[in-house]
Design a protein that fits this description.
alpha+beta, 2 domains, five-stranded antiparallel β-sheet, two-stranded parallel sheet, 6 helices, about 25% strand, globular
Length: about 170
Amino acid sequence: MRELRINERVRFYSINEYVGKEEELIGEIRGDYKAVKARYPVECGEAEEGVYLVKVDNRSGLFVIRRDDVLEILAPEDEILPDDYDEEQEDDEAFEEHERQVFEEMDKPKLKIIAADGNVFNILGLASRAGKKAGWSKEKLDGFLADCMSGDYDHVLQLCMEHFEVT
């Protein structure tokens, strides 16, 4: 398959780590391997050509994919819509989702873990202090830490990126 270009839409498969099954997703290429290395220096510092950042439709965050994961490069006008598609409902839902994300971003406390000790317990300690400093309730902080403890190192990093503005 040829090199992918920024802003190109692709259909690709990914493995959902939480349920352990493959799913097909559609998204837009937002960066190449250099962007992957810059955004995720710890996790993907060894990324080489053929690795891309993808913003998936109707999902927050970015996916890191390999060129081999791409099933199809979509033409700009290609879009897969369900039979019961309601454009007005989608517009309302998209606006509500955008509004939720904006307010969520505003409420995220800063967490400085780049250039910090990468030990998971150190990261949890930094996150705990940042949450307390931001005024999180004991219940919210305990829930966050319990959720972190339910997974592996990558799960902790994902949760930190969801709940904090990581710098």
